[in-house]
Amino acid sequence: MARPKEFEPSVALERAMEVFWRKGYEATSVQDLVQGMGISRASLYGTFGDKHSLFVSALDRYADSVGSELVRLLQAEGSPRDVLSNALQQVAGWHTGEREAPPGCFMTNAAMELCQRCPDTAARVRASVQRLTDAFEAVLARGQDAGEVTRAHSAADLARYLCGVVQGAVVMGKAGQGRGAIEPFVGVALASLAPQAGSCRP
Q1: Does residue 145 lie in a domain region?
Q2: b/e per residue, 174-194, with b = 16+ CB within 10 A?
Q3: Which of 17, 20, 110, 160 is at 20 to 30 A from 61, Cα to Cα?
Q4: Does residue 75 form part of some domain?
Q5: What does the alpha-carbon distance between residue 20 and residue 23 come to, in Å, rounded to a whole number?
């Protein structure tokens, strides 16, 4: 008869995600994970597989939880301009120590460390970026239809631009830049979306 698990796998995975998020993949040892997750090596391997498998599961966990927060904000009802403003202001706060989380973005950290040599990581990073791009594009298109967002560029191009702004804010926050630096940065991005006076573009 199999012995029941003495821990909650979802809690252990959340803890593993935080360890990888803080230390990165290479710098995280199995012992770091065992200590951070509060489980034995046997339980780690028996439930999650090897370190790589656990890391991939942690990325999936991040994408479904923390990584979905901005997408949910962009899917909110109301004025597209207000939705975009709220989302970008939240980004400014998230990366300046206003919530309990490791510095930076786990997905971005993983991209910088592993995308060139780990297909599993690269696939998840691409999916994450595409999901955010699609969410930006949808609200930007709504904004253009409502006359709240410039038509000087397509919604798709503006969406890619805002994804770059978000990544820039992530890097600034990880580098120790405060809200006083990041807020104006995202503010300029928001201002650039305003409809151009006298524009005759359709």
Answers
A1: yes
A2: eeeeeeeebbebbeebbeebe
A3: 160
A4: yes
A5: 5
- Cβ-based neighbours of 57, under 8 Å, separated by 6 or more: 13, 16, 48
How many domains does the structure of the chain reveal? 2
CATH of the domain at 46: 1.10.10.60
Chunk the chain into consecutive blocks of 10 residues (it has 202) and report each block's average pLDDT, rounded to whole numbers.
Answer: 69 96 96 96 96 97 92 96 93 68 84 94 96 97 97 97 93 83 91 72 45
What is 85-135 written as a DSSP string?
HHHHHHHHHHTTTSSSS-SS-HHHHHHHHHTTT-HHHHHHHHHHHHHHHHH
Same domain, 137 and 80: yes
Residue 48: which of 85, 25, 90, 14 has the closest Cα? 14
The predicted model scores a pTM of 0.87
Domain limits at 42? 9-55
Distance of alpha carbon 148 from alpha carbon 190, whole angstroms: 11
